[in-house]
Amino acid sequence: MHFKRAAIGLLFALAFNGVAHADTGQNAYDRGDYRTALDYWRPLADKGDVQAQLKLGAMYEAGNGVKKNLVQALNWYRKAAGQGNAEGEFNVGSMYDKGEGIAKDYAQAAAWYRKAAEQGYADAQYNLGAMYDEGDGVPKDRAQAFAWYSKAAAQDNADAQFNVAVMYDNGDGVKQDKSAAAIWYRKAADQGNADAQYNLAIMYSEGEGVPKDDGQALDWYRKAADQGKIEAQYNLAILYRDGQGVAKDGKQALFWFLKAAEQGDADAQYNLGTMYADGDGIAEDDTAAISWFRKAADQGDVESAYNLGVMYRDGEGVAKNGPEAVEWFEKAAAQDYVDAAINLGVMYRDGDGVPADWAKSFQWFQRAKALSGNDNEPGMDENKPLQRKTIPI
Fold it and tell me: Rounded distance, CA 198 to CA 185, Å?
């Protein structure tokens, strides 16, 4: 998945490129004396000083020392761009791209990005690549996207390096080359790109483009996980839980599942529930299991809904409650979960927590049969309901 373009931290950059008169205005700006900086830069900008024009544009865009005014910001950026300044061209392109200070116009954005890109401006090269990638303002052309990403990547733009890697990985706009993908993922990963770190971990885990190395996979997952990458946190938890490439460690598994679960990841929430329910590497705690299953089930996780049904039916971690069990089994059955339909059939057949109802029992067994594709009547010969599943997703 490619990154969407953005203004990459340069619209507000206030560093002169070796201009001798920079210190007075810059020093004032750095200490928060925006009025002095503005008074110093405005006369220079009026005289055509490109760097001062860029500074005024940034101040109007941010609202520093002046009332925020995107039209004025665009005006000053355009003056710098009109003198062939690549940063000014990029900033004008960015404002057309986002519709700031002017109506959004992807064609104009692409035209201005191209001007800056052709001068070697890496962020413009990246954004132009993204426009070809998305087909915004230019015809969609993955080969062109790859070409412009590559130019930015060669200048150490980490997002561009990641996109080049993805395109090599998938054979998208360029011939598939897993080894080249790994090289570019590493370049971006070494700059701290969490997505690249995660993808590089997968390559080491699967031995694609690099020799299979569980230790390297673990290291890169950890780097991405430390930056809050949910998928990396989840995979790291799986490795510790199952002892893949690392000593089995329930506490570490719990730690990383918790990180992902707290960010709302339903799979991690489900797995926390199973760990607590089974006492897998940690002390068994059915109450905690119920809590995590409920969080996942509320997001539509069918396994969690089923497990809640079992726990309410059996009174595990919660007071026994047949109607509540039925409600959760029905939620799982609504997602075509066969075992939930069977358990509903059993509960109504046996009057387990609910009044016996052969008609409802028959309907749920019929539903289970339809879901399973089994011509035999499911569950009719069973003496006991099915137990909860604890196989991780």
Answer: 9
Tokens 């595990």 belong to 316
Q: Report CA-CA distances (Å) from 353 to 102, 277, 305.
A: 65, 22, 17
Please give the pLDDT value at position 12: 33
Considering Cα of 332, then 336, then 342, then 348, what sign does the dihedral take? Answer: positive
The answer to whether the pTM exceeds 0.85 is no
Token readout for 195 is 């997505």
Structure tokens at 111: 């035209």
Which of 153, 113, 224 is closest to 168 using CA atoms? Answer: 153
| C-alpha to C-alpha distance for 131 and 152, rounded to whole angstroms | 14
Q: Which helix (H) or strand (E) is 376 found in, with range?
A: none
- Which residues of the chain fall below pLDDT 50? 1, 3-4, 6-20, 375-393
| Helix orientation angle between 50-62 and 34-46, rounded to the nearest 10 degrees | 140
> Taking the CB of residue 18, how many other CB atoms lie within 10 A of it?
7
**Element (H or E) spanning 353, and its range?**
none
Query: CA-based angle 60:58:114, to the nearest 5?
Result: 120
Cα 19 to chain centroid distance, Å, stands at: 41
Provide the pLDDT for residue 43. Answer: 94
At residue 24, the pLDDT reads 84
Query: Would you say how long the chain is, in residues?
Result: 393
Map out the domains of the chain with their CATH numbers. Answer: 1-154 (1.25.40.10), 156-263 (1.25.40.10), 274-393 (1.25.40.10)
User: What tokens does 318 get?
Assistant: 């919660």
Identify each DSSP E strand in 160-293 by its residue range: none
Query: Residue 287 is which amino acid?
Result: T
With contact defined as beta carbons under 8 Å apart, do 50 and 80 qualify?
yes
* Residue 182 contacts residue 200 (beta carbons within 8 Å): yes
